[in-house]
């Protein structure tokens, strides 16, 4: 009897939790229609915002991949003085309020910031440009990829790396031919989560890049801009962003299912192994 009551309590708590997580999404689609959502693709504000969002997000993810992967591999395979501090610096943007992150970028790369005057001497201006959107997205989204990549590299079998080196492969060849294939499931998951975080970035972007239509106004900023003027359009754009995020996560799940090995271990969304 107690066991049944306990199990029923767990089910009730799980139902409440799932309802809490689902209700806001349902609310968006209840108050809009598929026709209104489709109509938004002909809205100049939405079209410009979509172009800016995907352009800056793709560039930001490419930068995160190029710079974040070797950084994660170094932090995963080497222990050195200041290692814990380095991990903390990687994780810090995750807990910073987005507005603070944007203000920090402005004080670092703005006209009168730490590096702003030096960049200006070379004719480089970052704040309130599309480059600023890319930088803001990369700053807030990169920790998700790097932290996941660290976990993925730590989970690879070091004996396979050692065997590769013993057979005469250099460190670079071993990394690309052995380590990356072993860690690719976790890296894909980290990159997808990072991309999803970048798509929804708001606070750091508006502080560092502003909201100029066709230049720095992303889809999230367009939703905020339309909120006071056209609530229905704001709802429809929100539905578009929800659908994009859902498609992204679904694609990720399918990609990871293809990556599964035939063993009794499978990789979850966050790259953690779990029993099948």
Give an overview in words:
There is one protein chain. The chain has 276 residues and is an all-alpha fold. Helices cover 75% and strands 2% of the residues. The chain contains twelve helices and two strands. Strands 1-2 form a two-stranded antiparallel ribbon. Helix 11 runs antiparallel to helix 12. The longest helix is centred in the N-terminal third of the chain and has 34 residues. The two termini are 30 Å apart. The C terminus is likely disordered.
Spell out the blueprint of helices and strands:
Blueprint: H1 2-30, H2 34-39, H3 44-77, H4 83-95, H5 98-109, H6 116-121, H7 130-154, H8 158-166, H9 171-199, H10 203-208, H11 219-227, H12 231-259, E1 265-267, E2 273-275
Antiparallel strand pairs: 1-2
Helix pairs in contact: 3-7, 3-9, 3-11, 4-7, 7-9, 8-9, 9-12, 11-12
Q: Which runs of at least 5 residues are low in confidence (pLDDT < 50)? A: 261-276
Beta content: under 5%
- What integer value in Å does the Rg equal? 22 Å
Annotation, overall tally of beta strands: 2
Main β-sheet description? 2 strands, antiparallel
SSE string: HHHHHHHHHHHHEE
Mean pLDDT: 86
Percent of residues in helices comes to: over 70%
**How widely separated are the two ends?**
30 Å
Strand order of the largest sheet: 1-2
User: What characteristic shape results from the CA principal axes?
Assistant: globular
Q: What would you call the structural class?
A: mainly alpha
Q: Note the total helix count.
A: 12
């Amino acid at each position: 009897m107690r066991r049944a009551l306990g199990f029923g309590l767990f089910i009730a708590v799980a139902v409440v939790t799932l309802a809490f997580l689902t209700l806001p999404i349902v609310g968006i689609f209840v108050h809009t229609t598929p026709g209104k959502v489709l109509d938004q693709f002909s809205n100049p504000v939405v079209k410009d915002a979509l172009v800016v969002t995907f352009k800056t997000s793709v560039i930001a993810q490419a930068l995160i991949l190029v710079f974040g992967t070797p950084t994660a591999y170094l932090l995963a395979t080497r222990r050195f003085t200041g290692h814990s501090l380095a991990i903390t610096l990687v994780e810090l943007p995750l807990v910073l309020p987005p507005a603070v992150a944007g203000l920090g970028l402005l004080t670092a790369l703005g006209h009168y910031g730490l590096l702003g005057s030096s960049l200006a001497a070379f004719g480089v201006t970052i704040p309130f440009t599309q480059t600023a959107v890319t930088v803001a997205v990369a700053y807030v989204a990169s920790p998700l990829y790097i932290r996941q990549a660290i976990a993925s590299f730590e989970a690879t079998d070091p004996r396979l790396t050692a065997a590769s080196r013993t057979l005469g492969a250099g460190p670079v060849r071993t990394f690309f031919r052995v380590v990356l294939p072993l860690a690719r499931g976790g890296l894909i998951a980290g990159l997808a989560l990072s991309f999803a975080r970048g798509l929804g970035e708001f606070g750091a972007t508006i502080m560092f890049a502003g909201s100029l239509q066709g230049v720095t106004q992303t889809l999230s900023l367009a939703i905020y801009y339309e909120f006071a003027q056209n609530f229905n359009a704001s709802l429809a754009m929100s539905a578009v962003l929800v659908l994009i995020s859902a498609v992204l996560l679904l694609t990720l799940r399918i990609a990871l299912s293809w990556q599964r090995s035939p063993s009794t271990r499978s990789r979850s969304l966050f790259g953690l192994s779990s029993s099948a």
